[in-house]
Amino acid sequence: MSSTLRTAVASILVGLLVLGLKTLAWWLTGSVALLSDALESIVNVATAVAALIAIRVAALPADANHPYGHHKAEFFSAVLEGLLIVAAALLILHEAWSALRTPRVIDAPLWGLLVTLGATAVNAVWCQVLLRAGRRERSPALVADGRHLYADVLTSAGVAAGISLAWATGWWILDPLMAALVALNILWSGGLLIRSSLSGLMDEAVSDSTLAVVRDVIAAEARGAVEAHDLRTRHAGKATFIDFHLVVPGETSVFEAHEICDRIEGALQDEIEDARVTIHVEPEHKAKPGEGIAVGPDPEA
User: Going by C-beta distance under 8 Å and a sequence separation of 6 or more, which residues neighbour residue 183?
Assistant: First the structure.
């Protein structure tokens, strides 16, 4: 089992633990804000399961029906997470509205707060693990899960603060008001997650910093060519797809052009993990002066 899959499985177990703790906190207190926190944890477990399935699918090798691989499965998982987060937010808003109409005193607030803070501490540690693992393994599903948990940590801290204030002042209406604020925050984070995931599904180009690396590598390694142009990039899960046109002098043999392409491809794969490079070789009259990537001189020429 890969480290990415192990992390995804562990995320489910952690989510179940936190869900149990938050459900206990709600059962002890009857707080609608703590109920909203527990409902979000149900979403955490569901999204962790979705992430595990997506990671397994994304790891499948390319086949006849999917010649470019299954990398985008992780983006679908992240979109699903966003939709589930939005659904949870709407459910919490419904519960908060009902409680606003008939506020009630919270039972055993101290024990509920202690249990909630314990669950929040577990989430805080695990979201850092997920974010580090997701960035290291270049897994959109793990990064999405980590960002979701980070939002959960912030909302749980807000819930604890609101309940503490309500307990200290006797203003129990603060409990459903805090639940409503939690729901709005969750709604915002879900929208951001959907937006970022859709960018991957829509073949958004790599970041400016990665694009600069690609251009520098091509300029340095395309010795013997004239220029490179029509550079296009996209990312899908762990894979980064790079394709461009390489213009070579008319007298260049097929063997020599192939050697240049191999050199560029190898350098790009050394700099960018899991780079998938496609190079279209063109004769000199296809050059686009002023538009392409300038190539350094060939020291052997």
Answer: 36, 89, 90, 92, 93, 96
